[in-house]
Write a structure and sequence with these properties.
This is EAL domain-containing protein. Keywords: Membrane, Transmembrane, Transmembrane helix. By secondary structure, this protein is an alpha/beta fold. The protein contains 25 helices and 23 strands. Strands 15, 16, 17, 18, 19 and 20 form a 6-stranded mixed β-sheet that branches. Strand 16 and strand 17 form a beta hairpin. Helix 2 packs across helix 7, helix 2 packs parallel to helix 9 and helix 12 packs antiparallel against helix 13. It is elongated and about 140 Å long.
């Protein structure tokens, strides 16, 4: 009792600098550890394993450093020795407890998982603390306060569970602060409560033997420095990953909102912009226009030049559209050859100017390798809120106007007007009626006889499509075809006509043929020849009794494919006829309609006139046609005397070619290759000498 009467319970005194360093590590470590735990919950696979390692290292190191530095900051009045084995063991405990706690909280997601993980985390901190205190060997008796020891463990477990629970919720600035403070409370609360539970019984002789804390201070700052480096590495990893994630998100967002080929905004981006413009217009009382844009010759370019050429057209137009945009203007690609624009305006002249700039961009030639194409386009305009008071109706009415421009041969720009609604409704209704008529067998074929003029003998019949509408009466065949094309029924309709005509003709006299008109879409379809074969086999009709009729327009749309189809049909034995020859869309019509003063026979034809009878006959026909139309005819590419003789004998007006004269830098008399002047036997006149009218 005498000894105990002389003892003194020392007051706790800490080095302020080392203690401040320990608290700094604690706060920084708690923040980065909880952020890393959040990242663990957000990832999977190998990436999650990497974040597990980082979170474990950061958590274990900052908890152990906080305890170790704070313990070294403690000024003890007795001699102190550190047990290296137990000190290392205290760190090992945390290296096991932190990953186990995080795994339980993440895998058993929810309050139960966080409570279990918090218990492991808190018990790990407690074990680390009290093993560390056991390593802190004093040359004086130590008394422990049991209730405070229990309280320290409960503080560690409770605050750890709260920290994990908060860390697995959606991250925001407030949540980050709460999570950090909870984990700081777990670590610092357990440590200082545990330190308060320890009482050094300092005797007078111990007071005289107080140790020098200088070495402990140096060791403490070294540990803090090393741990800070580890935490900074963890922060750097987190920041780099966050930056990469943000960049990836922005790139994915850009890709999701942009057209992959042209880089223009896509349909999603357009819809978002449109809603913003509607909100702005409603708020500020402004107007804006939606402009629908559809390319006129894109399919033709794709068919004749290939998809690579089509892509060049789209990207070139996208660049032009982007270059002409000003404030309040927007252009997007919806897909295929469809573009759409927005123009914010309160001035109709401004709107007209923007639309005209778009039209100029469409009509400018586009160079593609060694040739040039011009796409052109149809433009439809609708204004908010004049033409519509909601975005869906506005787009629909811009489409109506664009469709009207597409079907109007004289206007490529069309502004919405109320009458278009009724027209479009009627058109769509008629298209639906056509589908119903096809499904219910309301269409029919009439057959117009074809005879041999000299004898009157029947040679065949042409199948003509008829539709008797129950309300509108007879619908003209061109309108039927146009409706079928608009509604996507043109292929199905063509197959029905071919099948019906072949079946009917199979029952006629064997010398009588049937002629069937085919649309360009049907004839140029890859499986058209197969469809013809199937119908001939099904009906039993002989191939030479079927005549497929096509127009010049079909051939001009894709000459290479049309020729391949024609050759395949000829190989089957099917006949081919050129329909509407000399009509309003044919080359012959141009000769009549345009004031040409001269026809120039192509060199490729003249090269064959003295070796190919068919070529010679074509030249005679052209010369006869020139005389009938009173147009001078010039033969190009005359290089041999044989070619010259044919041209001269058939009465060609003018000639051109190496035989007559080579190109010269200055206009001069042509140098000829033979004796005399071959041109003397040909009428060298700039215009024909017309005879009297008959």
């Amino acid at each position: 009792m005498e000894v105990m009467s002389n003892h003194i319970y020392e007051l706790k005194v800490y080095d302020p600098f080392l203690l401040a360093g320990a608290l700094l590590v604690c706060v920084m470590g708690a923040w980065i550890t909880m952020r890393l735990v959040s990242r663990v919950a957000q990832t999977h696979g190998r990436q999650r394993l990497g974040w597990y390692c980082l979170a474990s290292m950061a958590g274990a190191s900052f908890v152990w450093c906080t305890h170790f530095a704070a313990m070294l900051a403690y000024h003890c009045s007795a001699g102190v020795h550190l047990d290296p084995l137990r000190t290392g063991l205290s760190l090992l405990v945390m290296l096991v407890a932190v990953p186990l706690a995080v795994m339980l909280a993440v895998r058993l997601y929810g309050r139960g998982g966080c409570m279990l993980g918090g218990a492991v985390f808190g018990l790990g901190i407690a074990c680390m603390h009290y093993i560390g205190m056991a390593a802190y060997r004093l040359d004086a008796p130590v008394a422990w306060n049991g209730p405070l020891v229990v309280a320290s463990v409960l503080i560690g477990v409770g605050f750890s569970a709260l920290a994990l629970l908060l860390a697995l919720r959606p991250v925001n600035p407030r949540r980050e602060i709460e999570t950090t403070l909870a984990l700081v409370g777990a670590v610092a609360g357990l440590h200082f409560t545990g330190m308060e539970a320890m009482h050094v019984v300092a005797m007078p002789q111990h007071m005289l033997a107080a140790h020098d804390n200088g070495q402990f201070l140096a060791l403490g700052f070294s540990v803090i420095g090393g741990t800070m480096l580890m935490l900074i590495a963890g922060i750097a990893s987190f920041v780099i990953d966050g930056s990469v994630r943000q960049e990836s998100y922005e790139e994915l967002h850009r890709m999701a909102m942009s057209d992959g080929l042209t880089g223009l905004p896509n349909r999603i981006s357009f819809n978002e912009r449109l809603q913003n413009e509607v909100s702005r217009a409603n708020r500020d009382g402004e107007q804006f226009a939606v402009i629908g844009i559809d390319l006129n010759k894109f399919k033709e370019i794709n068919d004749t030049r290939g998809h690579a050429a089509g892509d060049i057209v789209l990207t070139t137009l996208a660049e032009r559209f982007s270059a002409l945009l000003a404030d309040g203007e927007f252009v997007a690609r919806l897909g295929g050859d469809e573009f759409i624009a927005i123009h914010r305006t309160s001035d109709s002249a401004e709107l007209h100017g923007f639309v005209e700039r778009i039209q100029q961009a469409l009509n400018q030639p586009i160079p593609i390798e060694d040739y040039v194409v011009t796409s052109g386009g149809s433009i439809g305009v609708a204004v908010y809120p004049v033409d519509a008071t909601d975005s869906e109706t506005l787009i629909s009415r811009a489409d109506m106007a664009m469709y009207r421009a597409k079907t109007d041969p004289h206007h490529t720009i069309w502004y919405y007007e109320t009458a278009l609604d009724q027209t479009m409704r009627e058109r769509r209704a008629l298209g639906e009626d056509l589908k119903t008529a096809m499904a219910n067998g309301q269409l029919s074929l009439h057959y117009q006889v074809q005879t041999v003029v000299a004898t009157g003998e029947i040679s065949g019949y042409e199948a003509l499509l008829r539709w008797e509408h129950p309300e509108r009466g007879a619908i003209a065949p061109p309108e039927i075809l146009q409706l079928a094309d608009e509604s996507g029924q043109i292929i199905k309709l063509g197959e029905w006509v071919l099948q019906t005509a072949c079946a009917a003709a199979a029952g006629w006299d064997e010398a009588v043929r049937v002629a069937v008109n085919m649309s360009a879409a049907q004839f140029l379809q890859p499986r058209f020849v197969v469809a013809v074969q199937e119908n001939l086999a099904r009906s039993g009709l002989a191939p030479d009794r079927l005549v497929i009729e096509i127009t010049e327009e079909t051939v001009q749309r894709n000459p290479a494919r049309a020729l391949a189809m024609a050759d395949s049909l000829q190989a089957l034995g099917v006949r081919l006829a050129l329909d509407e020859f000399g009509g309003t869309r044919s080359v012959l019509h141009m000769l009549r309609a345009f004031p040409f003063s001269k026809l120039k026979i192509d060199r490729s034809l003249m090269q064959q006139v003295d070796t190919d009878p068919v070529a010679a006959q074509l030249v005679r026909s052209i010369l006869l046609m020139g005389r009938a139309l009173r147009i001078s005819v010039l033969a190009q590419g005359i290089e041999t005397k044989g070619q010259f003789s044919v041209a001269s004998a058939e009465g060609c007006d003018e000639g051109q070619g190496y035989l007559i004269g080579h190109p010269a830098q200055l206009a001069q008399a042509a140098v000829t290759t033979g004796g005399g002047t071959p041109g003397s036997a040909m009428r060298a006149v700039s215009s024909p000498v017309f005879g009297p009218d008959i």
